[in-house]
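Annex B, item 7. Sequence and structure tokens for protein A, then protein B.
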Amino acid sequence: MQSNKNHLFGFRLMLLVVLVFTIACTVAYSQISKSLHIGKLPTHILGAQQPDVTASLTTPSKQSGVAPYTVHFTGTITASSPCTVAYCFIRSDGSHGSSAPHLWTFRQAGVKDVSDSWVLSANYSGWEQICITSKNIKSNKAEFTYTATKKKPNITHNVKGTTQLSGENAQFGTTYTLGNAYPFNITIRSAEYSVEPVLIGDRLYTVKNDEKFLILHMIYHNPQHSDRFVRWDSFGFTAVDVHDQNHDGLLDLGAETDNTSVSMNLKPAQKKDVYAAMIVPAAGEIPKLMIKSGDQQVLRYNLIGNVKGLPEVYADTTDKSGATALSKINAVPGTSYSVGVFSFKLNKAGYADISKLGDAKASEGEKLYVINFTLKNMSKGNAFFRWDSFQRKLTDADGVGIGDCLDVFQASKDRSFGDNLLPAQELTLRYVFNVPADNAPKTFTVGTGIGRTFVFDISGA
């Protein structure tokens, strides 16, 4: 009996010791934590911190105009650190704006300007918002109400801060404000006709032998108190020829300073010198020009006598306005001319001293005739060239074609050439012809077949 009591006492004593030890450890840990400020582990220790991405979108809440009407949206995507985001525009009717999804890589913390447009054909109230699909984040809803007008509004043009201008007929050098929802100022400084290629961004535009360019030099000005996004379709340009045929502008807008394609936000009061081009018939003046805003406001210009004529070498002298472009150009050796995407300059022409150059060999009763020329790639991409890239021809004093082009060689090597020219790369090459020994060439003609042809007098060679 005494033994059982002793065992019970020992067990109770052991429990008391364990309890005291536990309380002591808890108190000690609490004191140490307070003194060392130990709490929850920081997030960046537990795992990589994700970048903070936000988005916002705006458009005027009330809009009106003749249908079809374009609602424009502008917005931003902001990232707190480098990341790649995928985003799209979602709409209240369940559709998606533009092509989706878009991808954008932030190489550092920053802001990405975005924009979208929605064409409506009837009254509508709704919204559009940005959806960051890669982060499951959505912007605010840019809500709007569009009211379609039944007829064109009476058009009056006034420049903000000045008195109202009367009428729809516009003049060069005068500033006009177009647009109700998104008013914007436009001034045509000058215009000109040209047959030379037009470079905008990475694209080099060319015309056929029965066409020419009408080029407008303008000033875009944002009169609003907020940023305004502009690009080629901010205004529509249409030239009307003498047969009342419309010729719309290129789907591009160039910056005068560096020929880049304009697609940017203009800050409040910011101005931008830009140019636009239309492909029009080669013959005669273009009498009318129309500029139209997204909500159907129109400016009409009388172009007769107001457009600079073509350079003398391209102009038909029978048209005193200088507006008619020749399809065949009398060219001068030593001068560069645009042939397709290349610049072509004839350096010299003459018979070869030998009857064989590389694989090109003169037949009996014939001689080799060499056209030495310089070629330069004027485009922003690689351009391939070989012996048959151009149409080329030698003619005699009677205008009859003579000889055959056998090949094109490099300047210093009797070896056939066929390769890409890099952007702005320049090479000197040689056409080799087989011509009758008793019939000297008088002219050399070169062209693409659809563009203008250039005729060089080589009778003195």
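Protein B:
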Amino acid sequence: MAGELIWNGDQFEKELRRLVAEHLEAAAAILQAEIVRSLRVSARIGKNLWQASRPGEPPRARTGLLMKSIFYSVDQGSMTAIVGTSLKYGLYLELGTSRMAARPFIRPAIDRVRQKLDALGIHSAEFGIEREVAA
């Protein structure tokens, strides 16, 4: 009794790519929300008084511009997602400078949502901070 083998590889690959893209989109949205949540702490401590964050703490919100700039985008072709800020000073806050200690807000957010991301199949080894800043 001979069996017939039907190849559905193209269909399978298409469905697999769709599922991976869905998980990647969900992971990016989860990370974006966690970053924004960490930036909600206000710097205002009085009528005209502001308190900056301490080194190692996420930056405190004064204008909300950094918080509003957090975005994500997913490239289904390369199966990559970018989560970050379009503001140049976001990189300086995240990594610090020669004159200012870091006020990280992206890396701690990754650590806080690591379990949720692992459940989606997005593993922490796939994360990296890039120094790509638009001029």
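Comment on protein B: The CA atoms of residues 9 and 45 lie 61 Å apart.
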